[in-house]
Amino acid sequence: MKYTPKTEEQLADESLLDDGLYDFEIIDVDDRPSKKGNDMITLKLAVFNNDGTQRHIYDYLVIGNPFGERRLRHAARTCGILDIYNSGNLTAQDFLDKSGRVLLKRQNGTSEYPAPKNIVSDYPAPGDDKPAPPVGPAKDIINDDIPF
Q1: Per-domain residue ranges for the chain?
Q2: I need a labelling partner for 102 at 20 to 30 A (CA). Which of 3, 29, 75, 111 fits?
Q3: Of 61, 80, 129, 82, whose CA–CA distance to 101 is shortest?
Q4: In angstroms, what is the C-alpha Rg of the chain?
Q5: Residue 39 exposed, middle or buried by CB count within 10 Å (0-12, 13-18, 19+)
Q6: What top-level class would CATH report for the domain 9-122?
Q7: pLDDT-based confidence at residue 130 (cuts at 50, 70, 90)
Q8: CA 21 to chain centroid
């Protein structure tokens, strides 16, 4: 058998999705306190790649954290439950089986979790299909037929 040996980093990197927008469905939810004791909603997303395969990604919406609270509102908007969010009575169960689009980014490993992973950057508004900002230098334009 012939193969190319790979490092742990290469293997982990190959399992990640590229930065960008993806369709998702929420397949599991949980309400429990964060490590610091703040209220938190955990969402398990089935994220669908362009070829139809799916990956599972967890999102932790922590109340008391401005980034988490922004994502909570945006997730509710994307999932069509903004009215429940606005009532102040949103629970994890309200998200179960909802779907939409999610903006994913890659995150390098940390000392606590050494493997790189995909994380939820945001939940864009329905109909907002702007691509993720480019990572690294922009690619050269190949098509010379642009009239301007």
Answers
A1: 9-122
A2: 111
A3: 129
A4: 18
A5: middle
A6: mainly beta
A7: low
A8: 8
